[in-house]
Amino acid sequence: MTLAHDVEGDGPAVLLLHSSVCDRRMWDPQWSALRDAGYRVLRCDLRGYGQTPMADRPYTDAEDVRDLLDALRIDRVVLVAASYGGLVGLEVAARWPDRVSTLALLCPGMPGHQPSAELRAFGAREDALLEADDLTGAVELNVQTWLGPEADDATRDRVRQMQRHAFEVQLAATEEFPKPERDEIDLGKISAPCLAVSGRYDLPDFRQIAARLTELLPDARHLELPWAGHLPSLERPAEVTALLTDHLRETSPS
């Protein structure tokens, strides 16, 4: 199965990977700007998000992304990713380093990261709300947790819609296919230059991951946004779009 996706533009390929709070629509504010800057822009929905159904077999998100690139005959790509998409992007870049030319990671997750007590408490609260069939409560928990103070009402409504849809798709699944256990991902194999962004108002896990990537990757720099929560590309889209296009212009010019 090919992941649901959109492709537009000409030039070096840029793949946008979404947060697990959202789907590929989270990149609406950046889509046209990246295309108009001279890139072939691609975004996809991971399994159980947006227009991609749940899995019907064992799978990994990284292999799904690789298969999508193969189907589109894209040999090398710039990876721009948020949150869980950042975790997937790091795995792709580590397992197939010749396929990734540049990384831009917004508040990324990381393979092998052990969650803090704060992140575990969030997960337990979300599980309890879903087990109680309080879908609205679980959606609101995510909106309150992951959006920073700069997010306006329209942005909060957009995230509500994407998160609710993801929950509905995932909860409707009649069979689950756990992702197979994999050997430890060696991030040192990543050759692409990386911009790792964190937000001051995010959970400590993601702030620490972004900072730590400068130690784990051979060519990475960390930038903390003093106004941001966990989803800065939605909170201040114009500012983050400019940040991304500047990074791409320096590392993968169109």
Automatic annotation (TrEMBL):
Keywords: Hydrolase. SUPFAM superfamilies: alpha/beta-Hydrolases. InterPro entries: AB_hydrolase_1, AB_hydrolase_fold, AB_hydrolase_sf, Epox_hydrolase-like. One of its GO terms (molecular function) is hydrolase activity. The keyword Nucleotide-binding does not apply. Coiled coil: none annotated. GO terms for cellular component: membrane. This is Pimeloyl-ACP methyl ester carboxylesterase.
